[in-house]
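Note on ligand handling. Small-molecule inputs were canonicalized before submission; formal charges were left as drawn, and no protonation-state enumeration was performed. Where a ligand contained multiple stereocentres, the stereochemistry in the source SMILES was retained. For S-adenosylmethionine, this procedure yielded the string shown in the input block below.
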Amino acid sequence: MVYYPREDSYLLEKHVKRLAFGSVLDMGTGTGIQALAAANSKRVKKVLAVDIDKGSIEYCKKNSRHKKVTYRLSDLFSKVPKQRFDTIIFNPPYLPQEQSRRNISIEGGKKGYEVIQKFIDNAGAYLKEKGNVLLLFSSLTNRKMVEEFLNNKMFDFKMIDSIHYFFEELYVYNIIKSPLLRTLEKKGVKDIDYLAKGKRGVVYTGKYKNKKIAIKTKRRESEAVGRIKNEIKFLKILNKHKIGPKLLMHNKNWLAYVFVPGEFIRDWIPKAKKKDLKRVFKAVFNKCFKMDQLGINKEEMHHPVKHVIIGKSVKLIDFERARKTKDPKNVSQFCQFVMSLKPVLEKKGLKVNKNKLIELSKKYKKSFSRPDFTAVLKEIGLK
Ligand SMILES: C[S@@+](CC[C@H](N)C(=O)[O-])C[C@H]1O[C@@H](n2cnc3c(N)ncnc32)[C@H](O)[C@@H]1O
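Structure output:
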């Protein structure tokens, strides 16, 4: 069904006239209103206008002809040639679906934001480094979710207009690639996606030279740039000893390393068998011993629930709090962790004598010697 221009169309059109430039993609063109507004601007060279609806494309080819505009049938980007645009415009179907049959010109899916999410997930690959996306949606769409989708894809955005229209608020967003996204793309990183959030940092995944990588940066609202710098500093030292994920590239407020596949130790332990537990604990203890020898305290080894990843190998991650010290506590903290697991470990046949372990760990902490370290391992049956 052809969507004849309404308030939302006119609101977006106002900004298209002002901001569209270069080569333009008009997604979900309807009657072609945005495509024509763009084409009539001197700054615009050409426009590709697409729509999933056959009737709309037929309507445009007949009624909205312009020498700069080409119309094409396409479900989002599926039939858009692999090229990058300076401007991408989208007045999407943004309302939650009301009946069992979806009205595709106005409803984006059950939640309302499904089409927008798919659009955002793919838009980066079609947008030039300094391109803009002009996106319209409404208060009925769930603005928080839309902003989350944008953050997940490392876009920066700004609401540039809003109007009240019957029972809803209409918003126009201007979306650009964030400086970090631009830098990473220039370095050849692709398929960037959100992975996880910590207190201060955000981790994304991406593809680099056919390898999966992780990119860690500080959260927008966090001032903790120092943490990133710190992690870079310690990864550089520890990588030489095969500890930590392999650092690939970095800048003052982000770092990228080879992705570590596997499971958090927290989730892995309950399922693990005795012999695997022994192998993993031994590997972690050896890394802790190495860090003790280097005078580096990783911190949090007494509770490394999300800091040890078990995959093909055993890797420690998250070195943002690491620090140099004369009194490192990695081995002794990991002893504490083992002791805290006593009931679980004993069920699996690993004996944990707390008093003995405390005594041996104290002795080790005085000497940091290999024999004292070996005594700790022996006590847990790892030697
Ligand atoms: C709200 S209308 C906007 C039409 C026009 N751009 C305007 O501003 O008046 C949304 C348009 O998106 C189209 N559309 C919906 N889902 C689409 C999809 N997956 N791919 C491309 N177009 C889609 C609809 O057919 C409809 O023409």
